[in-house]
Amino acid sequence: MSELQLTELIERYLNGELSSEERERFEALRRENATIDNRITDHAHFTGLIKQYGERVELEKRLNAIHQEIDVHALTEELTVHPGWVVKLWRNHHSKISVAASIAIFAVLATLYVSGYFNKTSSNVIALRREVDSYRRTTENLNRSTNALLHDIKSGKRILAPSKFGGSGFALTSNGYIATNYHVIKGSDSLYVQNASGDSYRAKVVYTEPAYDIAILKIDDVSFAGLPNIPYNFRKGASSVGEDVYTAGFPSDSIVYGRGYLSSANGYNGDTVAYQVSLPVNPGNSGGPLLDTKGNLIGMISSKQTQTEGAAFAVKSRYLFKVAQQLTKDSTNSKISLNSKNTLMSLSKAQQFEKVKNYVFLVKVYN
Amino acid sequence: MLNSSAPTDSEVVFGILNNSENILKRVYVAYFPMVLQLIINNNGTADDAKDIYQEAIIVLYNKVKGGNFELSSKLKTFIYAVCRKLWLKRLSQMSRYGGDIKDFQDHVPMEDESDLHTERDLQFTKMEGALQLLGEPCKTIIEDFYIHNHSMQDICERFGYTNADNAKTQKYKCLQRLKKLFFQQV
Fold first, then answer.
1. Residue range A223-245, pLDDT digits in tens
2. Does A315 lie in the same domain as A286?
């Protein structure tokens, strides 16, 4: 029996096409021969698989046919979760948006840097040193005073060219020690101080303390004959916020009185060296004395804030004491003892000013 | 004829058992949008949805036909769960699966992988490959005889064999080659 015949026989057997006689013989053969039995099972299994595969293909065809009838595109549109326009914008353009944002941030930082925003102290607070427009005045003086010059030379009067910078200062002692701001005399070649009545004396710097913005000058001039006793006293303790204060200084060529109140116990950005005072001050007021209504000297005007109206700063008198002590200790021949006797106590403001103005000086700086 | 509303669950079971084309169509149309929504909102396309959904329908079909189908939940929930499971598997195969997927329906957790991909599915794939390799006319002869139950006489006439014995010999050779190709595949 060939393989072909056997296969045919198996197929007919499985399909029930054998006659009863043939089937009995075949089943007998199957029982006797295990190989034949295996062949039958295998064949049944394999052809069954082909049949089932065919059914699966058929089912898939049916499903595909059904699928054809569904408008998938419309359904997709309907069912997609449509994100909001912000999300869409971000998804489509996030790289561009990121770049734009970086550029914007960089531009802002660069602008702030260039405009000096980060150097707050130097831009918001200006030292009150007066820069004088010397050129215009030089010309005026030349025109005006050629003749007077000759006359003055003859009479032996001291001639002073207009200074480049100016500030104020006030007497610490009657023997010619004067306090002013360090920033006023910084980089100076020579110094002159001029009192309210117009007399000029040569002065020299004897001590500087840049940390407190304090400089001590000494009048060093043969024509200086000393001052009467200092009328104001120097206050050691702190003054209270809200106290009325006044100052005298040289924002122009003549002495100017300014009045205000103590507005904060600390200076710019919490600087503990200074008070904040609400007082109209101008360039040239630097180094002027700050007194309370009883005539106690409580500080020294040093700077003001540019962006805030009426916020000026004054170095506390306590630091004048410190500097005076330091000076006495450091040098052999200088001794400063600050006045503690107040003769202004009972006087009115105008009377006080009349007295105080004789002890306030215009500091002229040449360099 | 085409009822647009979803058939009841028992209608579906009886429909499949009775080979009802209408019921199959109605159940297919009724639940496809749900699956489409699931797939397209979880990194898939409409074509992915079609594949996954048809696979799920076949799972349902085979279960019903196999007689071991017990509906413990709603049919809709069952289909959704099957599709969800299949899609998760597909996503992890494509390795663009980054966590859980967004759900749009209730579903029952499907733990049993063997429900989805039976040994038979594997063999069907092998059979498909073997038939492709077999080439004509063997493929058609085998299909006609073993799938479509055509008689040897029909096949003989269709392919112009001079007698039925020639056709039988040819069919036998084809079957042998098919077996060889089938078992050669890994």
1. 888 888 889 998 888 888 899 99
2. yes
Amino acid at A118: F
Residue that terminates a domain, selected from A118, A137, A159: A118
Are A164 and A214 in a shared domain?
yes
pLDDT tens, residue by residue, A94-115: 889 999 999 999 999 999 998 8
Q: Among all residues of chain B, which has the CA nearest to that of A48?
A: B146
| Residue environment code for A40-57, b if the CB has 16+ CB neighbours within 10 A, otherwise e | beebeebbebbebbbebb
Please give the tally of structural domains in chain A. Answer: 3
Same domain, A56 and A168: no
Query: How many Cβ contacts (< 8 angstroms) between chains A and B?
Result: 80
pLDDT of residue B2: 46
Residue A166 DSSP SS3:
strand
pTM: 0.46
Same domain, A27 and A93: no
H-helix or E-strand spanning residue A141 = helix A134-155
- Can you tell me the distance from the alpha carbon of B183 to that of B173, in angstroms, rounded to the nearest whole number? 16
CATH code of the domain in which A241 resides: 2.40.10.120
B58 inside 8 A of chain A by CB: yes
Judge whether B182 is closer than 8 Å to chain A, CB to CB: yes
Structural domain includes residue A163: yes
CA distance B92 to chain A (A): 22
Beta bridge partners of A169: A361
Which of A76, A95, A118 finishes a domain? A118
CB contact under 8 A, B28 and A54: no
Domain of residue A11: give its range: 3-68
3-class SS at A167? strand
pLDDT digits (tens, 9 = 90+) for B85-130: 888 888 887 766 555 666 766 666 665 655 556 677 778 888 888 8
- Give the residues of chain A that fall short of pLDDT 50: none
Contacts with A52 from chain B: Cβ below 8 Å: 120, 124
Looking at the partner chain, which of A8, A52, A63 has a beta carbon nearest the beta carbon of B54? A63
To test the contact with chain B by mutation, choose from A49, A53, A64 the residue with the greatest count of B C-beta atoms within 10 A, namely: A53
